[in-house]
From TrEMBL:
It comes from the Bacteria. Residues 40-299 form the Periplasmic binding protein domain. It comes from Microbispora corallina. This is LacI family transcriptional regulator. The lineage of its organism: Bacteria, Bacillati, Actinomycetota, Actinomycetes, Streptosporangiales. Pfam families: Peripla_BP_4 (PF13407). Keywords: Signal. SUPFAM superfamilies: Periplasmic binding protein-like I.
């Protein structure tokens, strides 16, 4: 009896270590209480956006009566693959994940498909040619976000003939938002040769790396007119670097960012950022609805695009008091 109890404890500890702090009692094909069991592999905790997204997923699972097994991959693809394999072993009802990078998922997704466990992509896409490896993709149109950022810049400088020197803080290398926000922005600004991207480097979506990379940009480029940052956290780090260099963010260097998390919106309202393209992290409720449908075997759209807006400094001042994240 004691031996059996120890084996059970050991199995429980192993499952926890492999798949993070699961809330469910699954592990043998279902929660045992009729609840849907979802295995969710999160990218990490790299930004304010990610924290809000995690909260949205966890709260929505609770509200929807879904038993959530949650794991944080710390921005490492190998950790996500391990977590997904652990969810397959535990025979969860549905797997959802936000892929840290776009490529390299076919093998593990094929394993989920062979085990007949439906997969939902949330927030970020994969570049797999075989779209039967997942049931749906819920998240933003990152190319559109990049285009909105580029369009604001084009409009701002429409009456100027002088060259506009831009530095770009890219998100995590190989990730869908970094690839697509870069592409969308480039597509719009390339219509006018006065816009020049003079330096572009990854700040990995974090405040610390955004600051570090911006410091290097400032050292090697005496004339920077505009910073385009793929998220608010990197822009906030860059603001510290700009102020440290004795310049005024929002004035000496115009800043365009993406996300519209609370701290970014505050910097926008304070005049330190000039424009933010919204990327909503509140994907939880839609994710739980989709999960219920795929588990029941119902048809779901192959792509669900998040509704988003943009913010000027005045709009940020108005929106801040009721901002949820
Ligand atoms: O995938 C969404 C992006 O990931 C957010 O824009 C960024 O802040 C996060 O880290």
């Amino acid at each position: 009896m004691l031996k059996r109890f120890s084996a059970l404890v050991l199995a429980g500890v192993t499952a926890f270590a492999m798949a993070g702090c699961g809330s469910g009692s699954g592990g043998s094909g279902g929660s045992g209480d009729g609840k849907i069991v979802m295995g969710f592999s999160q990218v990490g905790a790299e930004s304010g956006w990610r924290t809000a997204n995690t909260k949205s997923v966890q709260e929505s699972a609770k509200a929807a009566g879904i038993d959530l097994k949650f794991s944080d991959a710390q921005q490492k693809q190998e950790n996500q693959i391990k977590a997904i394999r652990s969810y397959i072993q535990q025979k969860v009802d549905v797997i959802a994940f936000s892929p840290v990078v776009e490529s390299g998922w076919d093998t593990v997704l094929q394993e989920a498909k062979s085990a007949k466990i439906p997969v939902i992509l949330t927030d970020r896409a994969v570049d797999s040619k075989d779209t039967s490896l997942y049931r749906t993709f819920l998240g933003s149109d990152f190319i559109e976000e990049g285009k909105k950022a580029g369009q604001w810049l084009v409009d701002q400088y429409k009456d100027s003939k002088d060259p506009v020197n831009i530095v770009q803080l890219e998100g995590t290398t190989g990730s869908a938002p970094a690839n697509d926000r870069k592409t969308g922005f480039q597509q719009v600004i390339s219509a006018d040769p006065k816009f020049k991207i003079i330096a572009s480097q990854s700040g990995n979506f974090t405040r610390a790396e955004g600051k570090q990379v911006m410091e290097a940009f400032l050292k090697s480029n005496p004339k920077i007119d505009v910073l385009y940052s793929h998220n608010d956290d990197m822009a906030l780090g860059a603001i510290e670097a700009i102020e440290g260099a004795g310049k005024v963010p929002g004035k000496d260097i115009k800043i365009i960012s993406v996300d519209a998390v609370h701290d970014g919106m505050q910097a926008l309202a304070d005049g330190k950022i000039n424009y933010i393209v919204e990327c909503s992290p509140l994907l939880g409720p839609q994710l739980m609805d989709l999960a219920k449908k795929v588990v029941k075997g119902e048809q779901v759209p192959a792509r669900v695009v998040t509704q988003e807006t943009t913010f000027t400094q005045d709009q940020a001042k108005q929106a801040l008091p009721s901002r949820k994240y």
